[in-house]
Design brief:
The complex is a heterodimer. Chain A is an all-alpha fold. Chain A has a single domain, classed as MetI-like (MetI-like fold, Orthogonal Bundle). Chain A is built from 14 helices and no strands. In chain A, α3 packs across α13, α10 crosses α14 and α12 runs antiparallel to α13. Chain B contains 13 helices and no strands. In chain B, α4 runs antiparallel to α7. The longest helix of chain B has 32 residues, at 4-35. Classes of the chains: A mainly alpha, B mainly alpha. The interface between A and B is large, with 95 and 94 residues.
Chain lengths: 272, 285
Amino acid sequence: MKTWRPFRFSIAAVLSVIFGYPLLWMVLTSFKSRAELEASAWSLPTRFYLGNFRDVLSMGHFGRYYLNSIVVCGVSVAVASLAAAAAAYAFARLRFRGKEALFLLLLSGMMIPVHVTLIPLHRMMSSLGLLNSPVALIGPYIAFALPVSTFILRAFFESLPRDVEDAAQLDGCSPIGAFWHVALPLAAPALATVIIFNFVYMWNEFAFALTLTSGTTTTLPVGIYEVSRSSFSTHVPGMTAGLTIGVIPGLIVYFIAQKHIVKGMTAGALGG
Amino acid sequence: MQSRRTVWLLLAPALAVYGLFVLWPIAQSVRFSLFVGSEAVGGHFARLLLRPDGRFLRALGNNVLLVLLSLLIQLPCAMGLALLLSGRLPGRGVFRTIFFAPMVIPTVAIGFLWRFIYQPGWQGGLLNQLLMLVGLGTVDWLGNPGIDLFAIIVTVSWRHVGFHTVIFLAGLQGIPEEIYEAARIDGATVWETFRDITLPMMRPVIAVSATLSLVGSLKYFDIFYVMSPVGGTRGSADLVTTYMYRTAFSALNHGYGSAIAVTLLVITLLVAVPAMRLLQGRRTQ
């Protein structure tokens, strides 16, 4: 197989250029003037033109989108991870009636289309006065993050040896104390996976944000949606500038923490 | 020692949130689908299923196509990429980073990016300009009811293929090197090695990917909603979810929208539960 290596490398290189080109094109076009784009969509920008970014920053509220996204995702991820860890610990370590049935009920959330909750949640938030507030997103985000998180964390707790927790309980620790002081710190690697998985999912979430928020109250994906929709037909370089502003910070984080993010996002599929 | 109170304390936060934001809304949806805006109880379902709603059937058919094509495009491509990137290959990490990148980008951004790639007309998008360059005519990819669905499925596949590639790469790593060694000594060809060793050993991993792809395709929404703002021509690029969303939030028909949503839930569970069962059984074997 060794002779294959240069051949394999060239194929992989060509494929990754084709595959990555749409994203590269997005960034390149954001520096082109409208006239340059109309001349050719494939040409490279001839100078470092920043007008598109100026235009799009005056159209959208990117600072707000980012702030809303960070707050909503931060709060939701923190609460979801802790709640899932507590539930996962109970499912892994304690005995009680209806345990497997409850676990299955929670797990079925992985299959449920979020769309079946949109109309009732829209009405609920509207009657609570939370429609068009980023706060409205937190509850649904936590709820739909719980199934996978509990699944991954339960598997992890079950893989831990019981000895340490037993010792802690013999020393007078309550079961909750054993969870909080012993098992939870040991679960740090699985928690990291769960946190990353949920953060990426929530950061990109569209359907709830589209239904429950808009304008300055929305998160990054719907912000991108509103800005792109208004600039798509008239100002394509402006649209790509908006996409670049919306996408690049996340991509940079991905490039830096690639290993963890890939692992976190595939953990659900690979069984934790 | 482990009192009921302990169990309750640990489970309460998760179950409360799950109940309030998943189970209760589902119950509400069932109620709306039966009683809101319809002259008879169950009138919405009669209109949806008995007196078939053409738009709904079209959307459902598109979902089935999405499921099939996702399986037939994404998994073989991902297998090819995983084989290409497995083993020692310079720059392997960089390649993996690139192929996985669309998975971490908001779907909305992907949708608009590809809308421009497919853009027709005088300010022709990337694809049409390429076709003109090689002397072919242009195509209105997203405005043509025979093509739009497939064009969007290509975009969806572009986003997801890297995900399955990474899962397959993990699966390939689990196959012991000695088996390949033995096959080489026996003089097996590359194809025989793939057919008789790699594929059977990868079966559990492929099953996971297939299940995720199946369930994901049934409830797909984002990229279709962005790339086809009105669902194509007479629903040519509608999915059940996008049809439901427009019915509920553009036409403001909450009752009928709920009926579509509840039907989607039932279909998803009917398909997903046996698939998950099968998977669970495989895993514990």
